[in-house]
Amino acid sequence: MQKIFIGIDIAKDTIDISVLPSGDKWSVGTTSAELSKTVDRLVALNPTNIVMEATGGYETRLAALLVTTGLPVAVVNPRQVRDFGRALGILAKTDAIDAHLIALFAEKVQPECRPISTDDERALKELLIRRRQLVDMRTAELNRQQQTNSQQVYNSITQLIDFINHELDTIEHEIDKRIKASPVWRAKEKLLQSVPGIGKVTASMLIITLPELGQLNRRQIASLVGLAPMNRDSGTFRGRRMITGGRASIRSGLYMPILSAVRYNPKIKQFYDRLIDAGKLEKVALTASMRKLLTMLNAIIRENQPWRSIPA
Fold this sequence. Notes:
By secondary structure, the chain is an alpha/beta fold. It is built from 13 helices and 7 strands.
């Protein structure tokens, strides 16, 4: 049976689809009726793999519809497709070209199809994103408050900060309520919070944005988050290993917890101090400690045992 690979390029109002090896291509809108017809047409093709890029949420609706029909769907990082296109010498960019490039990527790379988030997971993820936005807004307003010499402007900023704090309290309460409503999430949160340095916010962030936690080995989870050092060697040259790629939002979310962990988590503190004593730069030691903390959390979820029961 011939294998069918489909690439889908999704914009706000249009969807471009390319099919290989037939070369068929078409464009549709994003209304419910058009999406339903598109799903039926793709089901009839019985594809081996359907690939689309993560486009800030536009892909979620179609991906969920396709998955519910049993079709294999992979949502990939746009950077992977872009680099693949450059390697092939495809530099032009239109929606139709992008769809064809994604189909080629599906055919040659055949990325793994991972489970699509449920409605509850997507809703909680949006709440976490909104919380991060509000925290950034509050930080910006606090900085402006320190710089102003006008009492009127100072009072205006104070009122806005109070409003942001109120919104943060509301969203954090909703996040907490949703996690407690799920026995699985509640159990994971309890396990993660058993680790010194991991609070409610970090636990909820890991539960939703890193569902693979506990399902991969330590090297795989470090690579997924972008905390695995990559070699930079060529011939006799030996470059300094550096982290790259992965989920930057998770690394960002682990920054404050690792600062706490190197002070209050005895296992992480011992590991961090040993690196500093060996002459490692503080940034290098913090990154390595973050990787150590991540692998520890991964083991805790995998073994379903709290922190004290897991060896360093």
